[in-house]
């Protein structure tokens, strides 16, 4: 029976295993495109874990892309196509006075409550955020 800590650890472990790949591909993408890749949310519905069971889910929105870019998740991380993952993922890119960067955010649900955490790459280190309960303000 999964606990909240186990759900978070599952998502953290999944992201940590892929972080070097994402980072390296983002660096190559930025060199080729002048900005980092932006990945829209991977799932229509967040993986909804329960005390009774883990609920990893296949991302059904991997072909979606931002209106200002033709690139989708398959272009950056084709390995996630067709496999169940423990959290929905979003990658935001940014450019500020200190330079460009990107933020990977994972979202999951446990017993009806939404949780999220973010990992930054770039100069705006404040964008790395620990696990927290997602408020309505964050969903809008």
Protein described:
This protein is α+β, with helices and mostly antiparallel strands. It has one domain. It is built from 3 helices and 7 strands. The protein has helices at 4-33, 73-76, 136-139; strands at residues 48-49, 57-58, 84-85, 88-96, 99-110, 113-121, 129-133. The strands form 2 sheets. Strands 1, 4, 5, 6 and 7 form a 5-stranded mixed beta sheet that branches. Strands 2-3 form a two-stranded antiparallel ribbon. It is globular, with a radius of gyration of 15 Å. The model has no long low-confidence stretch (mean pLDDT 95).
Chain-wise SSE layout:
Layout (H helix, E strand, L loop, with lengths): L3 H30 L14 E2 L7 E2 L14 H4 L7 E2 L2 E9 L2 E12 L2 E9 L7 E5 L2 H4 L1
Parallel strand pairs: 1-5
Antiparallel strand pairs: 2-3, 4-5, 5-6, 6-7
Number of DSSP strand runs? 7
The helix tally amounts to 3
Low-pLDDT stretches are none
What is the terminal separation in angstroms?
Answer: 32 Å
Major sheet details: 5 strands, mixed
Structural class: alpha+beta
Integer average pLDDT: 95
The portion of residues forming beta strands comes to 25-35%
- The string of secondary-structure elements, in order, is HEEHEEEEEH
List descriptors.
140 residues; five-stranded mixed beta sheet; 3 helices; globular
């Amino acid at each position: 029976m999964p606990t909240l800590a186990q759900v978070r650890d599952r998502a953290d472990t999944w992201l940590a295993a892929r972080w070097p790949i994402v980072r390296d591909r983002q660096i190559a993408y930025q060199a080729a495109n002048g900005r980092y890749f932006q990945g829209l949310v991977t799932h229509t519905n967040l993986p909804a874990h329960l005390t009774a069971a883990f609920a990893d889910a296949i991302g059904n929105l991997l072909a979606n892309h931002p209106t200002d870019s033709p690139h989708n998740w398959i272009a950056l991380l084709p390995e996630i196509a067709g496999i169940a993952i423990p959290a929905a993922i979003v990658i935001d890119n940014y450019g500020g006075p200190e330079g460009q960067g990107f933020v990977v955010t994972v979202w999951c649900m446990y017993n009806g409550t939404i949780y999220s955490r973010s990992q930054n790459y770039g100069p705006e280190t404040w964008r790395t955020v620990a696990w927290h309960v997602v408020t309505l303000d964050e969903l809008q």
